Amino acid sequence: xxxxxxxxxxxxxxxxxxxxxxxxxxxxxxxxxxxxxxxxxxxxxxxxxxxxxxxxxxxxxxxxxxxxxxxxxxxxxxxxxxxxxxxxxxxxxxxxxxxxxxxxxxxxxxxxxxxxxxxxxxxxxxxxxxxxxxxxxxxxxxxxxxxxxxxxxxxxxxxxxxxxxxxxxxxxxxxxxxxxxxxxxxxxxxxxxxxxxxxxxxxxxxxxxxxxxxxxxxxxxxxxxxxxxxxxxxxxxxxxxxxxxxxxxxxxxxxxxxxxxxxxxxxxxxxxxxxxxxxxxxxxxxxxxxxxxxxxxxxxx
Length: 301
Ligand SMILES: [Zn+2]
Known about the structure:
The protein is mainly alpha-helical. It is built from 11 helices and 2 strands. Helix 4 packs antiparallel against helix 5 and helix 5 runs antiparallel to helix 8.
């Protein structure tokens, strides 16, 4: 990677977007094949309508959709906007991650977690399930980034003191005053582990409360697992609180809108995973301003 911000290198930015959009094209394959337990490597992609095997030109992300106007070149079947949308979105996320975080492990984790969330969004929307493998990828990302930060920045700057897990600010290094005034022996825990426990625990509680209030299952086990995995990535403090509130507000707004527009009825189950996926990607990029806004809103210290 050359020195200086990536925005000084337009060609590199185009290349990064192109790589991202190729990955997006692979995500489209995952979205359609993972729930059916098909291989994501073979057979090669075919037109869903006429079955013609797609050539190299048809598989160029974004551009082929624009050139052939969202139609199959062989039978004229109009395909979903989802293909070029996921390709363009993934390209944008690759580019944005490196612009925001530089060529760092944070950028890599942001990219992998965002890609998993995009696949979760579409699969949960259609099949009302979240594959365990995708939650596992997010969890591993959160734990690995934390391990890297603990190794490079040290426990005092990265880990959570046991006494200030929630809802006090996280990660503050202990001051010399602590040692003088407090007889408490601080216990340090990795932020990702605390976040995972807070995330899964909080959603287990919300899911239990919601099932009592609505008298039906309002949240699935997949949502609780995803909350634990995202907790490992975001940590257990304000950022996760903000993530939870944002997801619930978005879920309520979308739910009310769908029922008001009579797209869904009151009895239909509206999956919560897509809300968590959208808000998860938002939090990855804007966690600091959103978390401090939420803290101000509730007059938290
Ligand atoms: Zn076709």
